[in-house]
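Priority: medium. Attachment 1 of 2:
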């Protein structure tokens, strides 16, 4: 009887060990992300600079890598009115692309029009990592996370930026699927 029990235990451990080997580790996801971001940077001709420009002016393909690993290029810094952390309601329109192999355009609520009506912007309170929208399951809301909040520390109302956001700085949907995102254009509008 004991031999049968031990045999079953060894078999269970062997099955668990072989099934665990088929999933990627977190480190492997990070390596795949790093390679994908490096390919994007090369493909798009992006120049990564170490420090935020003192005058706030970026060249066309110049991105700064911020402390949280988000890459940002400021197209227009806005009107100077800054968001207040935890209070400012932000309306955000963007064009987002997947970075990993096989990913492509994911969302475009910036320039897409359907029956003469523009797509809704996603809404969030500056500092929040989830949408404050009243719409349920509106796809752009899944993109809200630290990544879309990051530029608001540097730019004002009406700003337009480009971003490369690692999955760990995205919303929970992208964190759990390990998908980094390239925002080819993000436009912010505030409602105080």
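Attachment 2 of 2:
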């Amino acid at each position: 009887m004991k031999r049968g029990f031990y045999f079953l235990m060894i078999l269970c451990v062997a099955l668990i060990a072989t099934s665990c080997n088929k999933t990627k580790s977190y480190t492997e996801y990070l390596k795949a992300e790093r390679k994908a971001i490096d390919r994007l940077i090369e493909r798009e001709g992006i120049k990564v600079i170490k420090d935020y420009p003192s005058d706030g002016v970026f060249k066309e393909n110049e991105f700064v890598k911020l402390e949280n690993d988000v890459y940002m290029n400021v197209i227009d810094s806005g009107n100077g009115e800054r968001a207040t952390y935890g209070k400012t309601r932000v309306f955000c329109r963007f064009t987002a692309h997947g970075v990993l192999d096989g990913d492509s355009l994911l969302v475009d609520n910036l320039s897409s029009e359907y029956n003469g009506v523009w797509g809704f912007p996603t809404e969030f309170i500056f500092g929040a990592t989830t949408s404050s929208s009243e719409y349920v399951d509106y796809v752009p809301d899944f993109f809200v996370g630290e990544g879309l909040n990051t530029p608001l520390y540097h730019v004002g109302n009406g700003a337009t930026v480009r971003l490369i956001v690692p999955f760990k700085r995205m919303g929970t949907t992208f964190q759990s699927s390990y998908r980094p995102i390239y925002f080819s254009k993000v436009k912010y509008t505030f409602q105080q």
